[in-house]
Q: What sequence folds into this?
């Protein structure tokens, strides 16, 4: 008589990282920021609920992934904006840029984090008013991920300076641009990155 197979309801951070296609450090950051549900063992090791990993995997299947960085890869831009009309405007404007960047657009921070996988885009353009996790929290999470250190991040927001300071801060080194979207300035930033 064979005993029934018991499916594990948890996994290690390494197993979660392999399943999600991200680094172990990114899994740890996601656990600390409640994107993945986990607990710590008596020995201090994290165990991640498989259902939590499967939920992110399901969500990831709906999100386009950035290709891995390589010398041949064209410049990549990830835009995080929850206004779908503005996403259309980004698509139109960036399609006219001379370097023809590979563009991925998402409408929330969780999708943005999943799209980045093991590495970030060359340029990340982010709104601050986002559903689920706001842009401020997304930037805090991103600043903890060493694999994203080469990504240039620009905030494009309709919030005024006082509101940004109240809700922020925005991490140092991130340029904040006002809405309406200043595409000339974004192109200048992209051109600097591209060369």
A:
């Amino acid at each position: 008589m064979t005993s029934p197979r018991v499916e594990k309801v948890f996994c290690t951070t390494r197993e979660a990282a392999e399943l999600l296609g991200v680094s172990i450090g990114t899994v740890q950051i996601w656990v600390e920021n409640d994107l993945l549900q986990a607990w710590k063992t008596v020995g201090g090791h994290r165990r991640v609920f498989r259902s939590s990993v499967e939920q992110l995997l399901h969500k990831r299947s709906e999100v386009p992934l950035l290709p891995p960085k390589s010398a041949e890869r064209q410049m990549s831009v990830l835009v995080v904006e929850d206004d779908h009309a503005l996403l259309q405007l980004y698509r139109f404007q960036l399609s006219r840029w001379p370097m023809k960047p590979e563009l991925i657009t998402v409408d929330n921070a969780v999708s943005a984090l999943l799209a980045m996988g093991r590495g970030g885009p060359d340029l990340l353009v982010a709104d601050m008013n986002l559903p689920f996790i706001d842009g401020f929290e997304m930037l805090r999470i991103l600043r903890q991920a060493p694999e994203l250190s080469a990504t240039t991040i620009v905030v494009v927001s309709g919030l005024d300076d006082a509101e940004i300071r109240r809700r922020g801060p925005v991490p140092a080194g991130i340029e904040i641009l006002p809405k309406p979207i200043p595409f000339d300035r974004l192109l200048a930033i992209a051109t600097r990155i591209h060369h």
